[in-house]
Amino acid sequence: MVMELPAPPPSSPSSPPPPPAQPTAADVEGWPIVALYGGLLVGLGLAMLLDLPDSVELLAKLLGWALIVNGFAGLSTLGTRHELDWAGKIGGVSFVVAGVVAITWPEITLWSVAILAGSGLLLVGAFEVLVGLTRRPRAGWSLDFGMGALALFFGAAALTTPATTAVALTTLFGLWALSTGSLTLALVVYLLHRTR
Fold it and tell me: Which of 87, 84, 97, 69 is nearest to 184 (CA)?
């Protein structure tokens, strides 16, 4: 004998949306490392903004370190994204590679810095937006989405104006590092607050 389950009651158009998912212990696992990376990005962003280098080599080194820090931050959160770990791996490795190239490239040009970092930001930004959208029912998805949108914006800005001055690019990338680091710290605080 087959037993049929009753159909769920129809939802009325005025019913409230389901509450957002609460963060779990897996969501905050490794938070000290992520907070450290967020703090380092804020520090590098402030260093770029408060002491605008007019040297392309110094800009490449500061930006390279910011990319490396952000890449390791992405790699350290693997396992928290579940179904999209491959996106985190690609994004993290892309940032680390772009950062190492920016730091070690002898006689790097301003155009090269803009293209290298802008392309990296666009690639990783697309992955972050994808991660944010697929994690939508989970806590903190909007910050993933926001960080991806910021990376897309700053990457597009760098690629559309690659022949500007070192000061203009330093300001652009300093704002990216400062905003990304701040959002990372906000995500850590949010997740810690919601799990207690």
Answer: 69
The answer to whether the pTM exceeds 0.90 is: no
- Structure token digits, residue 27: 């969501």
- Write the DSSP symbol of residue 5: P
- 10 exposed, middle or buried (CB, 10 Å; 0-12, 13-18, 19+)? exposed
Rounded Cα distance, 151 and 157, in Å: 10
- In angstroms, the CA 70 to CA 174 distance is 13
pLDDT, one tens digit per residue, over 51-91 is 776 667 777 887 888 888 877 777 766 445 555 566 667 77
DSSP state of 19: P
- DSSP for 151-171, written as a single string: HHHHHHHHHH-TTS-HHHHHH
Domain boundaries, the chain: 28-195
Give residues with Cβ within 8 angstroms of 125, minimum separation 6. 148, 149, 150, 151, 152, 153, 155
